Amino acid sequence: MSQHFLSHPTADVSPQANIGPGTKIWQHVQVREGATLGANCILSKGVYVDAGVVIGNNVKIQNYVSIYHGVTIEDGVFCGPHCVFTNDKVPRAINPDGSLKAAADWIVSPTLVRRGASIGANAVIVCGITIGQWALVGAGAVVTKDVPDYGIVLGNPARLRGFVCPCGGRLTLDHQTQQKTVVARCDTCNQQIAISGENWALLSQNS
Question: Is residue 114 part of a domain?
């Protein structure tokens, strides 16, 4: 475990965790064995990082976020306060015979959060999905399906409601290409971004 990071005296960081330089781990955080955190991350008060979780560089994790085994978070992701990642699609405490479930009695469904994505406060990320790069999950959303790159999802269950630029501005349709992609333009910074035509069409289905 690297010693080039900051850990609050109340934090419980396993010696078997791999922590990158410049990362800050604050009050009452628990980081389990086998977890990997990149450089310059911020783990705020009460965060739980389960065994084997992989977190990239420059990730900001706000108060009381729970990240369970099977989750991979890429660089530059923001996790809002109290959001939670699940890892079992059919959770049970006991087996049909009444015995307490052990590690071998359930199957992990992996979850991937791609670079630059943001997850709002109190969102629930149901396992087995991918949240695309620069996507935005609204506060309180319950995400049960994959979120496309740059997609904005809201509600319970979360539905695609638009697309967002890396700068945070809304994307609006600019033109369609011959390659069945849509070129969208940011209302804030004027950047053009290519979006799958199939994903763009989902907006009309959800309206």
Answer: yes
